[in-house]
């Protein structure tokens, strides 16, 4: 039997222009963290998820794609726009065909890695552009800065769902929503709570292994934050039937308005917190 030594598998930072997908990584072999930005057309993937963001770090899925239920009768719950981490306009799904998707920027240095893409998921006259910046401080850790520019419609919702149901908020008091259907009746979220996101605030999940994941917002005038429980099933065999996850909805309203949602995502061991606060 012949044995040969092989070098460790190394995964690069890479953008695939035709697929319209970009991958930014940290770690000596690119296996410490991954930020993936998907701007691909509807195609064979068949998810309404243009400009979805996926973030994996230290062996943990922090911002996830809920996956596939194949021919499951509830498969719409995983391919709808709300099931992803992006912006929803007027409570509607993205369009299926002709949404396109292109990368405009992809640049990598030793400490700063950035990618930017846009699409016409809500029509050619609507701004829909996302910039992701991965800040790498080596052994001290890394974090992800997300900047989503969007226009059109009368209601723009920056949506992401967390990695578990146990979380805590800082700087964001919540109360019962001001209306029965704060999400326009399209989101089907339960146990809704609402707060004013005009000042800096954060949401934190503590995960196994003395680890935490935080999403930090600098706040901005006129922003409303809605938290609710939504679809969280991952297994097409129904072993987790009825599972839910918390959905965070940052809302801006007004006609003919161009909005910018800025968020910092940070995952780290409890004794290696790198980001303390965020402000504009």
Task: Tell me what you see in this structure.
The chain has 280 residues and is mainly β. 1% of the residues lie in helices and 44% in strands. It is built from one helix and 18 strands. It has an eight-stranded antiparallel beta sheet, with no helix packed on it. It has a five-stranded antiparallel beta sheet with strand order 1-2-3-4-5, with no helix packed on it. A hairpin with a 3-residue loop joins strand 14 and strand 15. The longest helix has 4 residues, at 76-79. The protein is globular. The model has no long low-confidence stretch (mean pLDDT 93).
Mean pLDDT: 93
Biggest sheet statistics: 8 strands, antiparallel
Uncertain segments: none
What strand line-up does the widest sheet have?
7-8-9-10-18-15-14-12
Helical amount: under 10%
Span of the ends, CA to CA: 61 Å
**What is the number of strand segments?**
18
Share in β-strands: 35-45%
N-to-C order of helices and strands: EEEEEHEEEEEEEEEEEEE
Derived from helix and strand composition plus strand pairing, the structural class reads mainly beta
Helical region count? 1
Give the overall silhouette.
globular
